[in-house]
Write a structure and sequence with these properties.
two-stranded antiparallel ribbon, 4 helices
Length: 130
């Protein structure tokens, strides 16, 4: 597994148009907080029980049309859930899995706010809200 900061991940996506960017946050986060432009949404887990989706790997395999050599980049809120999701993809044979450090919103600051210290949105990378 590789780890890239948001700016490096964006550059990788630009240089590798066959790569797939997957937002593995919940549907609510994806829709209301916003998401990277062009990201596919496949939740790793959902509220209220936060169970890991047993179909996560199958859904990602479907997105890459079964091509496990296709690069997959994963983003979540802060880079932790995406790490676990990336591990699951590597376990089944995905060859190039990249975890995006800091995630979409970055770490919490001293006031427990996000998007002030790092992350995709903080870096000014393309994103949208539904």
């Amino acid at each position: 597994m590789q780890h890239l900061a948001p700016l490096a991940a964006f550059a990788f996506l630009q240089a590798h148009p066959q790569a797939v960017l997957i937002d593995c946050r919940t549907e609510i986060e994806h829709m209301y907080v916003g998401h990277p432009l062009g990201a596919e949404h496949v939740a790793w887990q959902e509220a209220p029980d936060w169970d890991i989706d047993p179909e996560f790997v199958a859904k990602v395999k479907h997105l890459v049309r079964g091509n496990l050599q296709r690069p997959v980049l994963l983003i979540c809120r802060s880079g932790h859930r995406s790490l676990h999701a990336a591990d699951a993809l590597e376990t089944v044979g995905f060859e190039l899995v990249i975890n995006i450090l800091e995630g979409f919103e970055g770490p919490q600051d001293e006031n427990f706010h996000r998007s002030t210290l790092g992350g995709w949105r903080f870096c000014g990378l393309p994103w949208q809200q539904s």
